[in-house]
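Hey,
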Amino acid sequence: MRRYLLIRFLELIPIFFLISLIIFFILNAMPGDPLLTMRMENPRAMTRDPAKIAELRKYYHLDDPLIVRYGVWLWSFLKGDLGYSSMYKQPVLGIILKRLPNTLLLTVTAWVIGLIVAFPIGIYSAVKKYSFFDYFFTVLAFIGISLPTFWFALMAIIVFSVWLGWFPVTGVQTYGVSGFWNVFFDRLRHLALPALVLGLVQVAYWVRYIRTALLEVLDQDYIRTAYSKGADERRVILKHALRNALIPIITIIALDIPYFFGGALIIETIFSWPGMGRLIYEAVLASDYNLAINCLMFLAVITLLSNLLADILYVIVDPRIRLGAKAV
């Protein structure tokens, strides 16, 4: 099993380099000169001396071939030296580590909300197929799939923040709040609406996948045999049917983890949530390419790790894969 997971991990390495190459070349294809951008933001900080400018261009490898600049940047990234942000005038690594916990809090909460809501609905829709409940949530799922995330977020703000006043509109915490429990519940109120929006958008997809995967298993002969022997329906569904339907479900749910980080870019921007998504948005607008490229690489690493997580869950859930992993 260890060798199986090691092979899966090694397979991610060339994918990592390919992703880093694509991200680097795309961002460097954007118009603009980093030194010119820095000079426009703070003219006093940049010298007009041509020799000094040439020295800076050499220091930042701006006149080197693109592939050389890629190699220098990748080696620095692997060492943990991410350079400085021209927008914040701070080390990039410190900025990312400050914003990353907020994004993880938002995305993990939304992911858990999605699982809690999608699984009961998907299972019940499969068991009670073609019932009013099944048709009702099928229609809701198609509506949810069709709605743009930003529109859903704006409507949620209008209804629950502006009209009802249940949740704050933006931010992560109210200024001036003190005390452990006051801060805890205040942050929870700020988290609730963006996490619900991000999680419920994905529920529409997951309900359809869970229903479809479970229906395929429920039509198998061994399920009908279990029913004919008088086995309890809940036991048949949860122990036999659902467990065998988990492979395609795990594939979708584990590989959708990067979606939450991508969707967080929109949600964090709309709700002014200080996370990685909003940071990338601000970095691109400010032409802070060094900050943007390193943020995108962090998200790429998370995407690759979610693929590895899916492989690990396969081994845990399916004995056949576990036996095959031992044979590798």
